[in-house]
C-alpha cells in the first residue's frame, strides 16, 4: 500500500509539472514579438513637382510612458469637443494637405475639430501657418489677436532658404515645424514608424547577385553640396573594377527607357550614391532611406550628426570622412574584395530593434510622440496653449541644439 501511495504522489506531481511547463510555453509562443500597425508615409522626391506629406500614424509609447502622457493631457480642462482653427497664410508644395478638417484628431478623451485652410479667417484663427520657402525671405507676419500663435513650416534646407537661419526673420514665429530635431513638431523624411522600419529592415540581395559597381541617380546638377562636381571626378577616374553607372540627368552614362523604380534599380548594386543637395544639421532626406531600404551600401554625404539617425553608424560609407574621390574608390575596392567586410556594413538589417544604436532606438520611441499626424500635433500644441499660454521660441534660441550649429545674426 505504501508503494502504491508513493506512485500516486509521483504521478500527481509529474502531471502538475507538465501542465505548468505547457502553460508557460503556450504563453511565450502566443506573445507577439511586435505590434503590427496599419501605417503609411509617402516620402518626398526631389524631382517631383508636388510633395506629399503623409504621417498617418505610428507606434504607441511604452505603456508607462503613454500613461504619464495621458495623465498630463487629462490635467487640462479640455471640453469633450474643441475647435482649433489654423489659417494658412502662404502657398506651399503639399496639395490639399493643409485644407479642411484633419480627421481622427484627439487629445486624451477630447475630440479636436482641427481645421486648416486659406479660407480660415486670420482675424479669428487660433494660429497662422506659414510655409517658409514660399515667403521669399520676406517677413510679413502679423498677429490679429494676443492669443494667436504663428507657425513656421519647412521641409527644405536652410542652405536653400537662409531665412530659417536668420534670427531677425524667425523671431516673429512661436512654433517651428521643420526637419530640425529641436522643432516643437518635427517633420522628418523618415519617421521611424513600423511601416518604414519594416522597409529598411528587409534583407539585402546576396553579395554575389549584386553588380560590383557604384550606382548614381541625380537630376539636380547644381546642388549646393557640390555632389555633382564630386561625382564628375569619380566618373573621370574610370575605375577598372568598380565602374560608376549614372542613370539620372547628371552625367548619365547608362541607357534609360522611360521611368524606373529607383529602389529596385539600386538594390542590384553593391554601392549607391546618397549625397544630400545641401549640408546642414539634421537635414537628412529620402535619398539615404531609399538606399538603406534597397540594401546597397550608401556612399553618403550629409550633416555632421548623421550617426544620431542611423541604426548603426557603420551602415554608411561617410564621404565626409574620406574626403576625396580617390579615397572613396580605395574604400570601395576594399569592401568589394572582402565579402565579410562588405556584409558587416549590412549586418544591422538582421538585428532586433534593441540591438540597434541607442540614438536610433530613441528616435523610434520619439516617433510615437509625433503621432497621429503633424497637422494634428500642431492643433494639440495650439489647444494646450489656449489653456496654459507659453513663451515659445524656435530652434535658433535653443542653446543645446545650437551648440554645434552656426546661427546667423
TrEMBL record:
Pathway: Protein modification; protein glycosylation. Its EC number is 2.4.1.-. Residues 208-390 form the Fucosyltransferase C-terminal domain. Residues 52-71 are annotated as: Disordered. Keywords: Glycoprotein, Glycosyltransferase, Golgi apparatus, Membrane, Signal-anchor, Transferase, Transmembrane, Transmembrane helix. It is a single-pass membrane protein; Single-pass type II membrane protein. It is found in: Endomembrane system; Golgi apparatus, Golgi stack membrane; Membrane. One of its GO terms (molecular function) is alpha-(1->3)-fucosyltransferase activity. It is an enzyme of class 2 (transferase). One of its GO terms (cellular component) is Golgi cisterna membrane. The chain crosses the membrane at residues 7-24. Belongs to the glycosyltransferase 10 family. PANTHER family: ALPHA- 1,3 -FUCOSYLTRANSFERASE, ALPHA-(1,3)-FUCOSYLTRANSFERASE 10. This is Fucosyltransferase.
Amino acid at each position: 500500500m505504501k508503494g502504491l501511495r508513493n506512485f500516486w504522489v509521483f504521478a500527481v506531481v509529474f502531471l502538475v509539472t507538465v501542465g505548468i511547463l505547457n502553460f508557460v510555453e503556450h504563453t511565450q509562443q502566443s506573445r507577439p514579438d511586435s505590434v503590427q500597425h496599419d501605417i503609411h508615409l509617402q516620402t518626398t522626391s526631389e524631382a517631383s513637382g508636388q510633395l506629399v506629406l503623409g504621417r498617418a500614424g505610428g507606434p504607441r509609447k511604452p505603456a508607462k510612458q503613454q500613461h504619464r502622457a495621458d495623465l498630463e493631457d487629462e490635467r487640462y480642462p479640455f471640453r469633450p469637443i474643441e475647435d482649433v482653427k489654423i489659417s494658412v497664410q502662404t502657398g506651399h508644395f503639399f496639395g490639399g494637405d493643409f485644407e479642411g478638417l484633419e480627421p481622427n484628431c484627439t487629445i486624451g478623451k477630447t475630440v479636436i475639430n482641427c481645421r486648416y485652410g486659406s479660407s480660415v479667417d486670420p482675424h479669428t484663427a487660433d494660429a497662422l501657418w506659414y510655409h517658409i520657402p514660399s515667403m521669399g525671405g520676406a517677413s510679413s507676419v502679423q498677429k490679429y489677436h494676443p492669443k494667436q500663435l504663428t507657425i513656421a513650416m519647412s521641409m527644405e534646407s536652410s542652405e536653400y532658404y537662409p531665412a530659417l537661419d536668420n534670427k531677425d526673420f524667425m523671431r516673429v514665429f512661436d512654433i517651428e515645424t521643420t526637419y530640425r530635431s529641436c522643432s516643437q513638431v518635427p517633420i522628418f523624411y523618415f519617421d521611424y514608424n513600423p511601416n518604414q522600419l519594416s522597409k529598411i529592415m528587409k534583407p539585402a540581395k546576396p553579395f554575389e547577385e549584386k553588380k560590383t559597381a557604384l550606382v548614381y541617380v541625380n537630376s539636380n546638377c547644381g546642388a549646393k553640396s557640390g555632389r555633382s562636381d564630386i561625382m564628375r571626378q569619380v566618373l573621370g577616374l574610370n575605375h577598372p573594377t568598380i565602374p560608376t553607372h549614372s542613370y539620372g540627368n547628371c552625367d548619365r552614362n547608362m541607357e534609360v527607357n522611360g521611368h524606373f523604380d529607383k529602389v529596385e534599380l539600386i538594390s542590384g548594386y553593391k554601392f549607391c550614391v546618397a549625397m544630400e543637395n545641401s549640408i546642414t544639421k539634421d537635414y537628412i532626406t529620402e535619398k539615404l532611406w531609399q538606399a538603406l531600404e534597397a540594401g546597397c551600401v550608401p556612399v553618403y554625404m550629409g550633416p555632421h550628426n548623421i550617426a544620431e539617425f542611423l541604426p548603426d553608424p557603420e551602415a554608411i560609407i561617410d564621404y565626409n570622412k574620406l574626403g576625396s574621390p580617390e579615397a572613396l574608390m580605395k574604400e570601395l575596392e576594399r569592401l568589394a574584395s572582402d565579402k565579410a567586410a562588405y556584409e558587416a556594413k549590412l549586418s544591422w538589417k538582421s538585428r532586433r530593434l534593441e540591438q540597434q544604436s541607442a540614438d536610433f532606438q530613441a528616435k523610434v520611441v520619439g516617433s510615437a510622440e509625433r503621432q497621429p499626424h503633424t497637422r494634428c500635433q500642431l492643433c494639440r500644441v495650439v489647444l494646450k496653449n489656449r489653456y496654459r499660454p507659453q513663451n515659445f521660441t524656435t530652434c535658433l534660441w535653443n542653446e543645446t541644439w545650437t551648440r554645434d550649429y552656426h546661427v546667423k545674426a
